[in-house]
């Protein structure tokens, strides 16, 4: 995850190996897949906003062309490395035309001899879309919740309202590997990255303070166990 001020030609060449780039001026997230052979562009203006949605498009190459790394990069060049121009082009595509595939979810287009597959993805809820530029929408807790929820836990973690955040154990089907890394136990140093994974993939996550001693469990099912000690004024110390 990399946050930059503005996307341009220089930024493209500097960060083209990054999996995720957040562009502040344009308010877009760029995500690379398949070694850069597919990209998703998401409008993050409404990220972390309750009752709002974030739209995205995925641009890829046909399978027969996925060994051509230059082709997918060409899409940036065609729009002068201007994400606003690219976004405007995508929004003006007619996914209801007779040329649309898969129930209006995909269009195959050719630009200057290069064929692209354009996928219109569903709109994601704002509260399930992360952005480092709108994280202020996750307000600090004003008091300790009587009943903890995942949303409470995320707000406390993002605003550093804790004295300790740690992983108690992560478990997969590869028991030998799990043991070799001590089940991932230890301090979670990047609180934002930890919160991001829960925000974007909330299924299975739960929070509770069973022992009522200030320690809050934030876990995914039973295979990813974490906890923090709640401290209302933690970020102010």
Structural summary, described in words:
The protein has six helices and 14 strands. The chain is α+β, with helices and mostly antiparallel strands. It folds into two domains: 2-128, no CATH class; 138-236, no CATH class. Strands 1-2-3-4-6-8-7 form a seven-stranded mixed beta sheet. Strands 11-10-14-13-12 form a five-stranded antiparallel beta sheet, with helices on one face. The protein has helices at 9-15, 69-78, 83-91, 150-158, 175-180, 191-200, and strands spanning 2-4, 20-23, 28-33, 38-43, 53-54, 56-60, 106-111, 114-120, 124-125, 162-170, 186-187, 205-208, 215-220, 224-230. 22% of the residues lie in helices and 29% in strands. The longest helix has 10 residues, at 69-78. A hairpin with a 3-residue loop joins strand 13 (215-220) and strand 14.
């Amino acid at each position: 995850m990399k946050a930059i001020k503005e996307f341009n030609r220089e930024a493209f060449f500097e960060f083209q190996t990054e999996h995720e780039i957040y562009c502040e001026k344009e308010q877009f997230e760029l995500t690379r897949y398949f070694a850069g052979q597919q990209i998703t562009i998401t409008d993050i203006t409404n990220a972390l906003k309750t009752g709002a949605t974030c739209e995205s498009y995925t641009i890829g190459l046909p399978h027969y062309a996925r060994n051509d790394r230059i082709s997918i990069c060409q899409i940036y060049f065609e729009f002068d490395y201007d994400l606003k121009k690219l976004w405007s082009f995508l929004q003006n595509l007619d996914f209801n035309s007779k040329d649309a595939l898969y129930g209006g979810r995909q269009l195959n287009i050719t630009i200057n001899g290069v064929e692209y597959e354009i996928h219109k993805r569903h709109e994601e809820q704002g509260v399930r879309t992360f952005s480092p530029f709108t994280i202020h929408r996750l307000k600090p807790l004003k008091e300790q919740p009587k009943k903890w929820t995942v949303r409470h836990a995320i707000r406390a973690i993002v605003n550093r309202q804790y004295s300790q955040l740690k992983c108690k154990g992560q478990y997969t089907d590869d028991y030998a590997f799990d043991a070799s890394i001590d089940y991932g136990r230890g301090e979670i140093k990047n609180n934002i990255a930890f919160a991001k994974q829960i925000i974007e993939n909330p299924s299975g996550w739960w929070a509770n303070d069973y022992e009522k001693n200030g320690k809050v469990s934030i876990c995914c099912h039973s295979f990813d166990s974490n906890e923090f000690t709640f401290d209302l004024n933690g970020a102010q110390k």
